[in-house]
Amino acid sequence: MAEPHPQPPAHWSGSEPRQVLAPDGSLVGPLPQGLDATAFRELYRWMVVARRLDRECIALQRQGELTVYPGHEGQEAAQVGSAWALGPDDFVWPTFRELPVALLRGVDAVQYLQYHRGTWHGGPYDPRATRFGPICIPIATQIAHAAGYALGKQLDDSDDVTIAYFGDGATSEGDFHEGANLAGVRRLPLVLFCQNNGWAISVPTASQTAGEIWRRAEGYGFPGVRVDGNDVLAVYAATREAVDRARAGDGPTLIEALTYRIGAHSTADDARRYRADPEVEAARAFDPIPRFRTWLVGSGHADDGFIAACDEAADAFALTVREGVIATPAPPAEWAFDWVYAEPPVTFERMRAEALATERR
Amino acid sequence: MTEWTLSRALNEALRDALRTDDRVVVFGEDVGVSGGVFRVTDGLQAEFGERRVFDTPISEAAIVGSAVGLAFAGWRPVVELQFDAFSYPAFEQIVDHVAKMRMRTRGRVDMPITIRIPAFGGIKGKEHHGESPETYYAHTAGLKVVVPSSALDGYTLLRHAIADPDPVVVLEPKARYWTKEEGALDADAPGIGVGRVLRDGGDVTLLAYGAMVARIAEAATQLADAGIEARVIDLRSLSPLDEDLLRRSAEETGRIVVVHEAPRHAGLGAEIAARTMELAFDSLAAPIARVTGWDTPYPPASLEDAYLPSVERIVAVTKETVAY
Predict the structure, then answer these.
(1) Torsion angles phi and psi, residue A130, rounded to 5
(2) Interface contact B108-A340, CB threshold 8 A
(3) What is the assigned CATH class of domain B196-323?
(4) B3-182 has which CATH code?
(5) What is the pLDDT of residues B66-107, one digit of tens each?
(6) Is B128 designated active site?
(7) How far apart are CA A170 and CA A141, in angstroms?
(8) Between chains, do B144 and A185 touch, taking CB under 8 Å as contact?
């Protein structure tokens, strides 16, 4: 007899989420179309790389090399699975916790981390080239940007899809409603991807909303789906269907991915003030990485050598990123002025001269 | 000579912008079939189609937020927020994103967004329909803020705003929408950052924007009867300010009276006074005076006349300033 599995986190109660792999790694649903063994291994590798980098970032913060850093441990499947479903020209509008998605979009990790190093707001990567929007801290505002971008693509008769990432707390904001409603009215090619990780800093999902988030979609006139966000295959399948719908001109989809924020809200947060360690320990039983690894090895798509190689590659990558982060200096003072305006007013130029003269004194 | 109202001239500016740049899109609440509550978008949807000119849900944050996304996608959005006080739901999007996005992307993504807001009082409007929000936006780095005072200048400023690669807030004085002016529309007349002298005079400078420009012009006429020659300046551009014009006015008239509808406390008059002092303190012969709305919420229609700077108040304060 197997040990009884721990209870899932409280915010996973209610409607059964879509699942391909049970928490113990057993196959309980059809494998998603369009993924081969190479893809399976890539999904695993990215999750391992993302988690390893997350730990490196927390260490970098503790060592004073990053300012406040928001960890994503536990959310790797939700992010890697959804990002894998995107086409190269699809555009991502992230929050501040989508480092794994950024990696999959090809955003340079050192550049991305300049945001958390405090050397640049937004992120110095090129959002148009990477199709990964600027890091967005104001909650839910990026959903309106995503709706506008999707509208722009729709007006251009493009089949590019837009995806907005946000958390459970964001669904309490007006911009979530306004963006989702606009998306419904205009049938925008938009995927609204909610990572319900149970916590908005210290406030649990139950204090954030009384209903199930995926059900909101019905009120906006488009489909909603609840998926096990710690099941990378289920996340991929649900997102891929939503992306395909959007690309076909069939409008938006709201995805609620049930996951769990293993770490604190950020390195500035002490989660023990508001949640008990046993809750976190219980949630570790639903960790997306061991779950997928069990199936991956068990199904013969990877062997122990591959698993070990992923760990080694992740270590090497994390060290390279560490060196790159540490080597990045503070920007020159004039950068505070350089891009505020495309056509800087003469008064602004006078102030720039004043500021830089002061700087040199 | 064609006769234009401000509403009609702004409408023509939008039409010409839509015609000359196929990336311009115009959207907001009731701007489509209805043509806007002040008719500024009248007929545009019929002429350019629902793809270029369209109604949105009543969602000011999404109107401005989607303009950010549209700019990323290479469009040039011109949005209408129906009334001054209804721009506040979009405040976060304007301040956090529209104003900062170009810098955040290190100049890779421009925000050529025009935010039109029917603003200010003087029309015996309902509550929340008479506010002067200019300082909120003028205080925000990354934005440009303009206020036309007449039909022809409305055309010029709106064309400049739409053509500008940076975000521009255009505050349109509701009280002037139906005021007529004769002349030719000119997209190439001086634009953002430049004030204009409407009447010259050497004794004192009267400085205003929006609907108050007509009042300082009338005040100048009355002052002339009393032997005081007042220079009348339409500021037009609240951010950036025309510093050279402020300096010149201080140097040439030595006395300045600033007039605006907004409350006095931390109003634009404070910035104008401080800036002028920094630029030309030695030229000033009297303290810079402010004739403004009171530090109260904008009053009901029946009290509006006591709130707005009247010609009488302007004349009285100007005489005190000249006599100083």
Answers:
(1) -90, -15
(2) no
(3) alpha beta
(4) 3.40.50.970
(5) 999 999 999 999 999 999 999 999 999 999 999 999 999 999
(6) no
(7) 9
(8) no
